[in-house]
Amino acid sequence: MTDATDDRLAAQYEAYPYPQRDPREEAKRLIVGSPSHLREVDWWVFGARRPRSRPLRALVAGGGTGDATIMLATQMARLGQPGTVTYLDRSTAALRVAQERAAARRLDNIVWEQRSLLDLPGSGLGPFDYIDCCGVLHHLPDPAEGLAALLSVLAPGGGLGLMVYAPHGRTGVYMVQDALRLLAPPDQTPAARLDVAKRVMRHLPESNWLRFNRSFADHITGGDAGLYDLLLNPRDRAFDVPALHALLTGAGLAVTALMEPMRYDPATYLPDPRLRGLIGELDPVARAALAESLTGNMSTHVAYCVRAAEQVAPADAMDPAAVPVAREMPAEELARALRPDGTLSFLFDGLRVPVALPPLTGAILRLIDGRRSVGDIAAALAGRGTDQAAFMRAWREVWTKLVGLNRILLAPPA
């Protein structure tokens, strides 16, 4: 699958390892996101059924400067999750940055591999319980072949977290890419192309669609690497929801969730009863495609998926033994963010969506700490006068909406 375009892609990531990161910042912050947040993997891939004591063998295929690798390895260390994260990338420059970041955190649960993900079949690596492939498939000449390479090392019962570009939220990007191919042809050196791109951006006409797009900021805040990757990448394909679904089903995969699930429900944006009736007649893929077309601001799609033949029912959040856990922001902070009218406001790439929640929401959220079970929370509220039936009605609604927002999940068994 190597061709002249692939050689240019390799040269790009040597010259401008992506994303642009400074290892000294590891002392200040941990960069988190989707896919591959450990709590997300526990829930969206394994349905909160895989014990935390069971070693997790993870692969980050196309690890770049290390965001997913550092995040997952750090979270595994903090939560006492045994196992290893294997970083794989062919860029020497990116590997060096990722290793410096890991050293700054004193992480010892990372295995380093410098090679292409296309070399995975027959490599002797794996099998892996979880595979992250974020921002890679859309740069390959044949994304299906890249996906097949990943599946060749996926363990039975394992799953993947994928990110690919989406077209509508990248409005303006491909127009500027076309312009830059004329002014800075791909056969020029990366440095020469970047110089031209910077000059164009300083004089970009006010009417250019990229000026209106606030769904991403790589060209503004991502440094030279961000600008190059967004506007000068020699191979860049975007997938709308149906195209992504076709790619994944063609590989025998089933999607367990698109992030965040509520974003992909068009009823989130269309309260009209007649419209909601029409939405209800659509299949799940068409519903998600409708949400993508309506919002117009999805610049990427993040999907968790498993082999279609290996789907399992996730743990039941209504089970008294289930343990709810906040993904990242503590549930107490979510409770404090509740408005007087009982809504929580969420921002989806500039699109603000109010989510109505029942009156008991604040009391429930203040008791979610990752240790108390649903039964424990019910008992605590019963001591304050809330009967079991009222609690369960409220909890069902709180769970349904906040898991759809990827804010409250279930913890795996110990």
TrEMBL record:
It comes from the Bacteria. Keywords: Methyltransferase, Transferase. GO terms for molecular function: methyltransferase activity. GO terms for biological process: methylation. Residues 61-160 form the Methyltransferase type domain. This is Class I SAM-dependent methyltransferase. It comes from Rhodovastum atsumiense.
